[in-house]
TrEMBL record:
InterPro entries: Thioredoxin, Thioredoxin-like_sf, Thioredoxin_CS, Thioredoxin_domain. The active site is at C45, C48. This is Thioredoxin. The keyword ATP-binding does not apply. Residues 1-119 form the Thioredoxin domain. The record marks D39 as: Deprotonates C-terminal active site Cys. Residues 1-20 are annotated as: Disordered.
Amino acid sequence: MATDTASDAGTTTTNEPLHIDGADQLDDVVNKYDLVLTDFYADWCGPCQMLEPVVETLAAETDAAVAKVDVDANQQLAQSYGVRGVPTLILFAGGEQVEEVVGVKGEDDLRALIESYAE
């Protein structure tokens, strides 16, 4: 099974979620793309599984790169961003954290949030 990583992604945007393994890789993605929607999730989390197709659609159809961070495999990274529950979505714009959404949100709401920072 092939997965995209920050090292093989395009420079403008990516059409599939990037699976992040560690703070350095997330920093690289945030610095590489203007907009990054980061999905902090867990495989055992039902709401995270419900959000998965929405996140994949946003990766394919918006200007934002989508990063996925497994909180079980990256506990320190999740703690460093204050993630206390999953799913937590953090939006970065221009390398800075600009929004945080906890819980499941609809595709339209998330798309509007991304587009409010797209320029």
